[in-house]
Design a protein that fits this description.
7 strands; 44% helix; 248 residues; seven-stranded parallel sheet; 8 helices; Rossmann fold; alpha/beta
Length: 248
């Protein structure tokens, strides 16, 4: 039997490279995937089709994490079919600017999606999860929260807040069989980071910055998330685990 058979897993931000890799990994381990998306519903639908074609089980759940009422309605609808056993808070956004020139809207947008979005989607799912006495919450953070990054004070602050929330929530839920951990990726191969003319890191930068001299892959991050979401990670909670090729 697959390790996550019978579990329902929500992945927020499932339309991106990392979210889709995580979803495919959890589906491969037997979970029924709840694929969250908002800006790119066609990508979420295509991912659900792809998972089904591989013998997995998935459905789309489209809502705006920045909208409190929409998120509350969506989580209530998800719970009608039973508890959500695994929550991967992957949704996030960049809106970079040097701090002296950062607009209030840039700060608020980034912090709201990562921090308030985590609260809006996770909080209503926790009590039903606790009643099952088994659950996994994995928050996707960033190396920026640990080492900082120029032009990303807002993003670093938002992800660092997730670290504090991870550790505090882990203490609250540990006695009921629910673990809470954070994964902090470094430079991961993606259109924004390493691909195309507008990429933030070219091959020379990767060789200079990363001891392994390459970017990580979404599947490598997904493998770590899959482990933390599985039964073998039952004694791991309250941790921030970096996956960065020795970046710092």
């Amino acid at each position: 039997m697959k390790p996550l058979a019978g579990r329902r897993a929500l992945v927020t931000g499932a339309s991106g490279a990392l979210g889709s890799a995580i979803a495919r990994r959890l589906a491969g381990d037997g979970a029924h995937l709840l694929l969250h998306g908002h800006s790119h519903p066609e990508r979420v639908a295509a991912l659900a089709t792809q998972i089904a074609a591989r013998g997995g089980s998935a459905e789309s759940c489209l809502f705006d994490l920045g909208d409190e009422r929409a998120t509350a309605a969506a989580t209530a609808a998800l719970l009608q079919a039973g508890p959500v056993h695994i929550v991967v808070n992957n949704a996030g956004v960049h809106d970079d600017a040097v701090f002296p020139g950062m607009k209030p809207a840039q700060w608020q947008r980034v912090v709201d999606l990562s921090v308030n979005g985590f609260f809006r989607v996770t909080q209503p799912l926790v009590l039903p999860m606790l009643r099952t006495r088994w659950g996994r919450i994995v928050n996707i953070s960033s190396v920026a929260a640990l080492a900082g990054n120029r032009g990303q004070v807002n993003y670093a602050a938002a992800k660092a807040a997730l670290h504090g929330a991870t550790k505090a929530l882990a203490l609250e839920l540990a006695s009921r069989g629910v673990t809470v951990n954070a994964v902090a990726p470094g430079i991961i191969d993606s259109p924004m980071a390493t691909q195309g003319a507008g990429a933030a890191f070219d091959a020379e930068a990767l060789e200079r910055l990363v001891p392994m001299r390459r970017a990580g892959t979404p599947d490598e991050v997904a493998a770590l998330v899959g482990f933390l979401a599985g039964p073998d990670a039952a004694y791991i909670t309250g941790q921030v685990i970096s996956i960065n090729g020795g970046l710092y």
